[in-house]
Design a protein that fits this description.
Helix content is 71%, strand content 0%. It contains ten helices and no strands. The longest helix is centred in the middle third of the chain and has 25 residues, at 122-146. It is elongated, with a radius of gyration of 22 Å. The N and C termini lie far apart (85 Å).
Length: 203
């Protein structure tokens, strides 16, 4: 046996390198295939071909694999709030919600795949509901900071109502068979009559 063969026999070699994006793509495919609850981090690591240490360095918890996209949405919302300083309160709220749902028809297949994973799992649905409530509070806090004369409780009711409509629109867009517009445009149409009806509550 030559030196190279002896080294190979002693060690299986170092796990291959994989990017964060590759790990996440493999994980999402497994979640679709087996379900989120039935897929372990160890199984994801095996499928990718990396060590569990490498996987944990990217995603310390399994749920973190689902949150990159949510974090991107939240950042878009915050950028919208920062850019809308001169807008009336209702327009600030609507712009923030539409920033959260800024997806084109080209994004729909991947978005729908992620949405189905979340919708099928109780833990993920609860986590999304909690994060959505946190984003609603961020919008409310920013609106109230700029317009402290508005009744906070009433403004909060408006924010939560419009966010709920946005969530329903998102679900409908994800499962629609004939969606021919982006999610933001789809949501804007769904929000419009409620914005018109609730507008007087914010003066």
């Amino acid at each position: 046996m030559d030196e190279g063969s002896r080294k190979s026999a002693r060690s299986p070699g170092r796990p291959r390198h994989a990017s964060r994006e590759e790990v996440r793509a493999v994980a999402l495919a497994l979640f679709e295939e087996k379900g989120y609850a039935a897929t372990s981090l160890a199984e994801i690591a095996r499928r990718v071909g990396v060590s569990r240490t490498t996987l944990f360095s990217y995603f310390p918890a399994k749920r973190d694999l689902m949150w990159d996209e949510f974090d991107t949405r939240a950042e878009r919302m915050r950028q919208s709030l920062a850019a809308s300083a001169d807008l009336p309160p209702m327009e600030v709220i609507v712009a923030a919600i539409l920033a959260l749902v800024h997806y084109s028809t080209a994004d729909r297949a991947s978005f729908t795949a992620r949405w189905r994973i979340v919708d099928a799992d109780d833990e993920l649905r609860a986590a999304v509901a909690l994060r959505t409530a946190e984003l609603s509070r961020e919008i409310l806090d920013e609106v109230h900071r700029r317009a402290p004369n508005l009744d906070r409780e009433r403004t909060g009711d408006v924010v939560h109502a419009l966010m709920a409509i946005g969530e329903r629109a998102t679900s409908d867009w994800a499962v629609a068979t004939d969606a021919d517009e982006g999610l933001d445009a789809f949501t804007a149409r769904r929000l419009h009559p409620f914005v018109q009806a609730l507008g007087p509550l914010l003066g």
